Amino acid sequence: MKRWRLGTADLLAGCDGLGLRTAWVKPGAAPPRGMAGPAGRRSVHGIDGPPEVELDRLVVMLERWLVDPRTVPDDHLLPAGPAFHRACWIAACRITPGTTMTYGDLARSAGRPAAARAAAQAMARNRLAPLVPCHRVVAAHGLGGFMGTTLTERGSAWALRLKCWLLEREGIGDAEGNDRVDSPAPKGDPA
Fold it and tell me: Given 15, 88, 93, 134, which residue is catalytic?
């Protein structure tokens, strides 16, 4: 497993029983349950090559993303999932850094114009954030959710501040919480 400290959060890359994945955690926090490196695994669900090689590819892409947020994952590294989820993940990869798209627009881009909620669920199940940039997908009237949380859920403030930080990193918004998506999200550092 690989860990990067980004000041506001730690970004992890590893694998679990479902395949390759990334995770955002509070600085120094333990990885999500079941997430580890590929040691001892002969295969990882959803990928063809040896786990060590595929994880190395993911790590290289994440290191590129740290320098250039336009980095997009190789399609073969996208996780297995329902066809609509994969269509949403591919559409999200086409969102230009520094811009956002609503869940409704994402659903249209993925071929199901009336499926905004399903597009939001696809983003909540994104296993390769930030390479599949779900942080660039927002609600029609605000920030929306992040990492499967919304503003109304307990414990969501940290995740939503992280989403704001990622958007600020790409030039959307500022450190005061003022952004161009009319966000009611909490202000400050997500740590």
Answer: 134
